[in-house]
Specification:
43% helix; alpha/beta; single chain; Rossmann fold; globular; 3-stranded mixed beta sheet
Length: 239
């Protein structure tokens, strides 16, 4: 297969997936799909997604789904002080950051673009997503069962192309992806995991996105780097 459509957030997982498809699977034609759902870390995510697209020589398509942010119950979309952020209990972590039906919506948006390309240009693009094993705090929409059901949906809701959703990292841990990124020589400093957005900092004329260090995304990132025993070059506001 010579073409692929990758859902990307500019995050560690999806950026690693894009490089994996290029360097390991030898897919030359990769289109990155970025979804703007009015997430608080939009600027930082988009900054990293654009960097990845430039380095890969890939097209980046930005899709407006801001209505999802309007109905979202997630702290990814809602304001919260650092003090309250620090007080989130482990049992509340999952639902605090969960965006209703996000992965389902993202996949179907990607599928619609892929089917449109097939109908109009006879180009076959499967839709890739970087969902992975999340450990004990596993979102339902990051599981093998979820992917299986979504592929059944894809079969019945499209007319052309025999398109499918693919998740190569489904059974991988985040630390596995960090180790893979090292082998593929990916600069993970150009990826972003923070859910709340920490802004940017200029260091030696280079713009660096800052992680808050205390949200669910930052906790997961820091933990994975620790387990992988690989140096974390990310800058955290709260260490």
């Amino acid at each position: 297969m010579s073409k692929a459509m990758v859902l990307t957030s500019g995050g560690l997982d999806s950026v690693t997936l894009a490089y994996y498809l290029r360097k390991v699977k030898k897919i030359r034609d990769i289109e990155l799909i970025f979804l703007d759902y009015n997430q608080k870390s939009l600027k930082e995510e988009l900054f990293c997604a654009r960097k990845t697209a430039k380095k890969l020589g890939s097209k980046l398509k930005i899709i407006n789904v801001r209505w999802l942010g309007e109905i979202s119950t997630s702290l990814i979309n809602k304001k919260i002080s650092e003090e309250k952020l620090k007080k989130i209990k482990e049992k509340e972590e999952l639902i605090s950051w969960y965006v209703p039906c996000r992965n389902s919506i993202f996949l179907l948006v990607g599928l619609a673009i892929a089917e449109s390309k097939f109908i109009s240009k006879k180009e076959k693009n499967d839709v890739y997503i970087a969902i992975k094993h999340e450990g004990e705090l596993q979102f339902k929409d990051t599981t093998p069962e979820f992917l299986k059901q979504m592929n059944k949906t894809a079969e019945f809701c499209t007319q052309k192309g025999n398109l499918k959703f693919v998740a190569p990292f489904l059974n991988k841990e985040k630390e596995d992806l960090i180790e893979l990124s090292k082998k593929l020589r990916i600069n993970l400093g150009d990826t972003y995991s923070c859910y709340v957005g920490g802004g940017f900092k200029k260091i030696k004329n280079k713009t660096i996105p800052i992680h808050c260090g205390i949200c669910g995304g930052c906790k997961s990132r820091k933990k994975a780097f620790k387990f992988s025993n690989i140096k974390d070059s990310s800058i955290y506001k709260n260490v």
